[in-house]
Design goal:
Length: 359
């Protein structure tokens, strides 16, 4: 008589799904797929937004829940990890799972993970290396990051599974009014927000280029600083800042926009860029991290060097003044997401990975 199906769960460990940022967006999307039900996924949050006390309490609660689930010997533990505090928390999770002989999938999201690793003292760098090498598999967001992670932990088995988004049924429709240019994410230097405002100030001196176009920055942490920069540059008539937007608000903003700009200094595979490409916006982005694997320069968007105000202004000038180029790049970006980053494609790759690890 054969045994029944294995209904033990997969344990997914990440930040709270209410937390701002790419990891929570990614896990929320996976939760909406067949993968979640097929593997009876139990989510454990070891982090949340809030005060230091809030974060400590959440970590403690997460460990207690994880310990209870590990006693039931789940099929595997899928850990979503970034740098700094996230690594410290998840390294303990990996150790707990290994102590119960439960296989671990480590999913590395951090845009500065290699810099973080290089800055650690040698003993802690060894801990990081062992943490990655003890995983059954380490998931990288692209070939660039796979190479970097392999250099950090030569004994780790690293595979590539990209970030993913759902592709809307219809592309964005900017309408006949002034063109809207959008920036989404943390409003800070790493994302290039203030380089963008400098570049926009240059374009604002060319009314024939802007032709009434409006720049909208939406995000967190640097809202007040951005508002002051807009005032200093004198571009309040064509640039505005909004605080962090929820998923529905983001979708609404993108659906009526024409260009997405993210001139970052460092990145993994930014979810906001993928969402904008899925809507068919024309991307202008920093040629850093995993972005060149997402955007083919000149074919599905324009790439610029980080911190280069003149290059960013020139790229924006091209797509602002050439509607055919803008539309063609946006359409190609949407098709690239459909082929490589569509959620229905990616969750099946994770399903195959689970099957292999669980065996």
């Amino acid at each position: 008589m054969s045994a029944g199906p294995d209904v033990r769960p997969v344990v997914c460990v990440s930040t709270s799904l209410a937390t701002r940022g790419g990891i929570s967006s990614y896990v929320r999307m996976l939760r909406g797929t067949e993968l979640w039900d097929r593997w009876h996924v139990e989510h454990v949050a070891t982090h949340r937004d809030g005060t230091k006390k809030d974060k400590v309490v959440q970590f403690g609660r997460g460990l207690v829940r994880l310990a209870g689930l590990l006693r039931g010997r789940p099929r595997l533990v899928h850990v979503h990890m970034s740098a700094r505090g996230s690594f410290v928390r998840k390294a303990l999770v990996v150790r707990l799972a290994r102590a119960r002989r439960v296989p671990v999938v480590v999913h590395v999201h951090g845009s500065e993970f290699d810099t973080f690793a290089a800055g650690l003292p040698r003993p802690l760098r060894a801990v990081l290396r062992r943490t990655l090498e003890q995983a059954a598999v380490v998931v990288a967001l692209g070939r660039t990051w796979a190479d970097r992670l392999s250099a950090i932990a030569p004994g780790a088995r690293v595979v590539v599974v990209p970030n993913a988004v759902r592709v809307p049924d219809a592309p964005a429709d900017p309408g006949d009014g002034p063109l809207r240019v959008v920036f989404l994410g943390e409003i800070g230097d790493r994302k290039g927000a203030f380089t963008l405002l400098e570049a926009w100030a240059k374009l604002a001196a060319e009314p024939e280029v802007l032709a009434g176009a409006q720049l909208v920055l939406a995000g967190d942490r640097g809202v007040d600083r951005a508002e002051k920069a807009i005032a200093v540059h004198g571009i309040g008539g064509s640039a505005a800042v909004r605080s962090w937007l929820g998923p529905d608000e983001v979708a609404e903003l993108l659906a009526g926009s024409g260009i997405f700009v993210l001139p970052s200094r460092s990145e993994g595979q930014p979810m906001a860029l993928l969402e904008a490409m899925a809507h068919g916006l024309c991307p202008v982005a920093g040629a850093v991290g995993g972005i060149p694997e997402m955007v083919e320069d000149g074919r599905s968007g324009l790439l610029v060097p980080p911190d280069d105000v003149d290059a960013l202004a020139a790229a924006l000038r091209r797509v602002l003044t050439d509607p055919a180029l803008r539309a063609g790049l946006g359409a190609a970006a949407r098709e690239r997401v459909r082929a490589e980053f569509d959620l229905d494609v990616v969750w099946r790759r994770i399903d195959e990975l689970y099957r292999e690890v669980a065996r």
